[in-house]
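Thread amino acids onto this structure.
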């Protein structure tokens, strides 16, 4: 797994987390878990050190609110799976 996201991307990760929380509610997903998974997705597609403009462009195309739900489901929480089935 990648290390905690670079500081300049933290605001983007916080927005994605906030959007996911707003859409799906509290799924007992810690921000750090979400941010690390998002970092991993970006790194898998753009390499270890993408420029900020490239990463921001890629980030804008992601459905980060759905990523919030899928990461919560990967953690195995019953509440997140209930939400997944509901959607």
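Threaded sequence (87 positions):
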């Amino acid at each position: 797994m990648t290390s905690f996201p670079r500081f300049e991307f933290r605001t983007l990760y916080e927005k994605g987390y906030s959007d996911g929380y707003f859409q799906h509610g509290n799924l007992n997903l810690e921000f750090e878990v979400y941010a690390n998974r998002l970092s991993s997705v970006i790194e898998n597609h753009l390499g270890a050190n993408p420029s900020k403009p490239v990463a921001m462009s890629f980030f804008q195309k992601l459905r980060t609110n759905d990523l919030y739900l899928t990461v919560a489901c990967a953690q195995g929480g019953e509440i997140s799976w209930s939400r997944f089935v509901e959607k």
